[in-house]
Amino acid sequence: METVAFYSLTFLAVASALVVILQRKPVVSALALAFNLVCIAGFYLLLQAQFMALLQVIVYAGAIMVLILFVVMLLNLGDESTERPSRPIQRWLGGLLTAALALVFGFSVSAVVGAPLPDNAAPFGTAAALGQELFGRFFYPFEVISLLLLVAMIGAVLLAKRRL
Amino acid sequence: MLDWFSTDLGFQIGTTFAKVLIVVNSLLGVVAVMTWIERRVSGVIQFRWGPNRVGPLGLFQPVADGIKFLMKEDIVPSDAYRPIFILAPAMAMVPALCAFAVIPIGPTIELFGRAVPLVIIDIDGGILFALAAASLGVYGIVSAGWSSNSKYSLMGGLRASAQMVSYELGLALSLIGVILISGSLRPTEIVAQQAGGFWHWNVFPWFTGGWQTLGFLLFVIAGFAETNRLPFDMPEAESELVAGYHTEYSSMKFSMFFMAEYVNMLTSAALAVTLFLGGYHTGLPWLDSALGQGWALWTVQILAFMAKVGCFMFFFVWVRWTLPRFRYDQLMNLGWKSLFPLALANLLVTGVLVAFDLVHQG
Description:
By secondary structure, chain A is mainly alpha-helical. Chain A has helices at residues 2-22, 26-46, 50-75, 88-112, 127-135, 139-163. Chain A is built from six helices and no strands.
């Protein structure tokens, strides 16, 4: 049952990721990315991390992707194929970087293949467990990050207001 | 077949399937009745008749409308982007139906000697599930607006995405007060904590209640914006945008957007009832004790839930035909400059009350 769910989720996630990069219409790419994020929430569910899965859908698929879609639609980006063709140097660099990325992924995947899976006896993904971790062990990093986000928010408002 | 049904897993799958079937069909049935109620009530409010010709009191009007929608020509504009244009109504409809799955429509009943909770999925993060489904609903509207390739549709889609992202914040924050006082994200548990008399309901501002009067008001206002109802129906403001994101849609595809809006209304009404108004509890302890335990009580509790949601739906209709539409910038200002700070203030006050243990006493 879980294996079937895992493989069908994997298929959907990889397929939607391919649509993201192969589709020439930016809006369709954005929609496919949103679908991909929902698929990843499905993986969290398979790992018994309900809370993480729901947050993944609410924050990434429900809020961030809607904003990205909003910007794409507002700019009304046209078909990518009408743009000028890419230069040769771009292709070479792109190929090189892709190869480097593939190497990094290959190493990190080969490091964990065959490693024992952590048991799900202590569910990490529930709201209560996550709260305990955040406000217990990781209290100071958590507060520092919230301060950082506040600074970023104030900075964004300041930059936007200057131009108004 | 019966042997299989008597196993635990078989029983669970069977009852879940039955629950899904009943809930989805009653939702769509209520939507049909609501279209009639909406037009009749608007008639009363505006001092005119409304549909009163088809059947007694015009009650068969929804059937006639359904036949009309099925018979109409299904037009896809030649400039539309077909795959997304066809997919969009489903993208609006599916999340709307999903969100209702976490709402307890009745108590845990006993069937063939086993306990059956009257909620489709009873998970730890139920409220978050409803919020997640609501936040995915915007994709249907946005992609309808974009794929129609018409400027009115695009404007409607843009407005929808901006409005829904803004109001989701206020909606979620107004719910956190309830989550704080109940210490749980599970709707069934939040309802259980409001058992007994109506003075235990979360909406009431005293020590046996939950002090969430402000949270309730904010939730209702944000709910109007989230379901795109007047006075916040910017995405389909007909005086400016023809019909907004569904301008280019006809036949059953248009009808699906229409149904999605009504299902969303039902979901936010049911959520408000569950979280603030005691869910399926009658709120009258002497009535509960007179009915005893068993089918009499269960039936009355399910009816109580339906009555509360019904009153709420009437309120939705009443507001729609009473208030004029907001301007778009007023809508954004209300969301960010009034709703959001008030929700934060509500959160602060609730936090203090919870810290001193002043909620749900007695």
